[in-house]
Amino acid sequence: MAGTTTVRDLRNRFPQVKKLVELEGEVVVTEHGTPRYRLTRFSPADPKKPAPPKDYLKRLRRHQRRPISAAAAKALHDVNRGAR
Fold first, then answer.
1. What is the pLDDT along the chain (84 residues), one digit of tens a residue?
2. Burial class (CB in 10 A: 0-12, 13-18, 19+), 40
3. Candidates 3.40.1620, 1.10.10, 3.10.310, 1.10.150; correct CATH number of 3-40?
4. CB proximity list for 38: less than 8 A, separation 6 or greater
5. pTM score above 0.70
6. CA separation for the pair 67, 61 (Å, rounded)
7. Less Cβ crowding at N or C end of the chain, within 10 Å?
8. Cβ pair 26, 39 in contact under 8 A
9. Residue 77 burial by CB count (10 A; 0-12/13-18/19+): exposed, middle or buried?
10. Domains in the chain: boundaries
């Protein structure tokens, strides 16, 4: 059987409610005498394998398939530099 508590107890006496959750495993919170919420202990999901590391160079090459030539790089530099 799950323990019960009120919203007021939850607000004013949280350490006792926390202990009740730890002992009972589940606590029903009532509001004006009507059951409204259920508090349960948190259980994390099954641990999964970590994600593989990101291959940033592969991602960069996907957007810029082939490098620009030296002449194109110089022309771009000259355009960006302007009359300086």
1. 578 999 999 999 999 999 999 998 899 999 999 999 999 998 877 778 888 899 988 888 888 777 788 999 999 899 998 777
2. exposed
3. 3.40.1620
4. 2, 26, 27, 28, 29
5. no
6. 9
7. C
8. yes
9. exposed
10. 3-40
Residue 61: both structure tokens together: 């090459």
In angstroms, the first-to-last Cα distance of the chain is 81
Q: How far is CA 44 from CA 9, 41, 48, 52, in A?
A: 26, 10, 11, 21
